[in-house]
Structure to design on (535 residues):
């Protein structure tokens, strides 16, 4: 019999709703797996046994009374420790915010609560979500679920690692420059970076308000769509949140992909791409060809300039948010995060404003030149083989500098353009670590990405692979 | 990228005036990063319409749906 923790969130939700598995059983199994993952990978910062079991029991009682519950009723979830819950302090991966109880609960958490999900803990993350490899010098590095010597990717490190380790059914992450898609790629799970404004950021720790997005990671595209359906939509508490109607993403999963046009970039994304990664990503294109999609080459605009403009925006906005703590508590930052924030303190106001002005122009060019030809653009998430923690840690030498400079290169321009992008696992590299591709869509076309992702997973079984120790 | 020591000094002064203590060894690196970004961004923004403002982004985003 399949272990409860190996079920997908969608299958578990159905099993709980139909009384085949109780929410309490599911929570007990998840808490056991979470303690193992915490010990092996340091993916959890806190596990709330009592509160989680109490809530799971309440779900079971409600089901027994015949109450109509939400689509995630009884599904255990833990989230990146930057989503505020009223009265509880979130670490944000730092030690600065540990004594700040939140004044209000994040909209994304409220919506997941309303859908019936049961939060059972909080997950490790990069300090203040400002770093791409997943290290944390205050709470200890998070480790890859497939091999604990390797990086998880960041900043949603615990979200990727815990979900891959079957210790969590789905997790909220955040993506400002790749922080959902990178851990999805490195840990072999699915992650959606939504369109800017599709999901409320109210109650989520800010890093760069012009680039921050909130989205889920899970093991299947269906699970990601299920969670995304619960959290997407307008929120008057977030002024940047769009009023665009939310479509039925679960229906979109069944949309036929035959005849869809998938773009393959002729520049930028495959520049200096490691051969093993390129082979896996290009092989996934052949699956789409077999599914009846049309694969077309697309010439891209100048992505490097947009990437650098994105750096200026993120750096300046992050430095502004952190200005007071940088002055008053500089010793409480790790050297790595402090060094990134220093760059933002030196970005000029004119440089920042022009980088924001360029965004509208860049997106217009992208829509005209790229999205007018295709339904989605297919590309690698990263261009290098997964490195070890040692190679990317302090003293990691040349490999450290190379990885840090390359890690967000294929990510950040998509945040700058505000576009949705879905990361999907597509195989394993020579050293056994997972690899994924990203599918980039037009604004608010998450449904198209879910259709394409679900079609890929219906034709492949990469998402069913489980790390050996689990 | 090489930078003018005067630029490095000016950037360090600006950052420190903002209250952020920047290590001397880091000043050249920050100056190099900022100078490099400025060059590329200035080239990229040279052709922007005079009237274009940052808030235009979300309008384009919604039009592109």
């Amino acid at each position: 019999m399949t272990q409860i923790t190996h079920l997908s969130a969608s299958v578990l939700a159905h099993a709980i709703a139909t009384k085949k598995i109780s929410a309490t059983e599911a929570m007990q199994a998840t808490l056991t797996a979470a303690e193992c993952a915490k010990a092996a990978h340091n993916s959890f910062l806190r596990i709330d046994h009592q509160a989680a079991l109490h809530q799971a029991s309440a779900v079971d009682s409600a089901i027994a009374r015949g109450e109509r519950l939400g689509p995630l009723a009884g599904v255990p979830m833990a989230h990146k420790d930057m989503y505020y819950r009223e009265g509880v302090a979130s670490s944000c991966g730092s030690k600065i915010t540990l004594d700040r109880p939140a004044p209000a609960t994040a909209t994304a958490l409220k919506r997941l609560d309303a859908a019936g999900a049961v939060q059972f803990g909080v997950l490790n993350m990069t300090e203040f979500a400002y770093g791409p490899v997943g290290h944390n010098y205050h709470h200890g590095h998070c480790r890859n679920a497939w091999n604990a010597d390797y990086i998880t990717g960041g900043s949603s490190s615990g979200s990727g690692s815990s979900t891959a380790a079957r210790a969590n059914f789905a997790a909220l992450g955040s993506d400002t420059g790749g922080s959902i898609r990178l851990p999805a790629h490195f840990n072999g799970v699915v992650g959606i970076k939504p369109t800017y404004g599709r999901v409320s950021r109210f109650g989520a720790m800010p890093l760069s308000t012009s680039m921050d997005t909130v989205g889920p990671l899970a093991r299947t595209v269906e699970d990601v769509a299920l969670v995304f359906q619960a959290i997407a939509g307008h929120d008057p508490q977030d002024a940047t949140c769009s009023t665009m109607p939310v479509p039925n993403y679960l229906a979109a999963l069944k949309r036929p992909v035959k005849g869809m046009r998938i773009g393959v970039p002729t520049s930028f994304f495959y520049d200096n791409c490691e051969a093993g990664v390129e082979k896996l990503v290009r092989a996934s294109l052949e699956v789409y060809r077999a599914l009846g999609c049309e694969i077309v080459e697309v010439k891209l605009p100048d992505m490097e300039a947009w990437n650098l403009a994105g750096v200026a925006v993120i750096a300046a906005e992050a430095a502004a948010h952190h200005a007071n703590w940088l002055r008053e508590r500089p010793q409480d930052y790790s050297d790595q995060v402090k060094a990134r924030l220093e760059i933002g303190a030196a970005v000029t106001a004119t440089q920042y404003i022009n980088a924001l002005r360029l965004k509208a122009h860049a997106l217009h060019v992208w829509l005209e030149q790229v999205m007018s030809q295709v339904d989605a653009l297919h590309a690698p998430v990263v261009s290098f083989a997964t490195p070890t923690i040692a190679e990317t840690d302090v003293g990691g030498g040349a490999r450290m500098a190379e990885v840090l400079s390359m890690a967000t290169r294929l990510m950040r321009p998509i945040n700058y353009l505000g576009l949705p992008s879905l990361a999907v696992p597509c195989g394993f590299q020579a050293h056994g670590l997972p690899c994924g591709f990203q599918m980039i869509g037009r604004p608010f076309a998450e449904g198209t990405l879910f259709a394409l992702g679900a079609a890929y997973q219906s034709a492949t079984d990469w998402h069913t692979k489980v790390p050996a120790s689990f | 990228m090489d930078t003018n020591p005067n630029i490095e000094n000016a950037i360090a002064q600006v950052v420190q005036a903002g209250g952020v203590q920047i290590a001397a060894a880091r000043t050249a690196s920050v100056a190099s990063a900022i100078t490099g970004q400025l060059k590329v961004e200035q080239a990229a923004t040279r052709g922007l319409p005079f009237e274009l403002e940052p808030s235009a982004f979300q309008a384009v985003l919604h039009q592109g749906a």
About this structure: Helices of chain B lie at 5-17, 24-45, 56-63. Residues 24-45 of chain B form the longest helix (22 residues). The CA atoms of residues 17 and 32 of chain B lie 19 Å apart. The two ends of chain B are 40 Å apart (CA to CA).
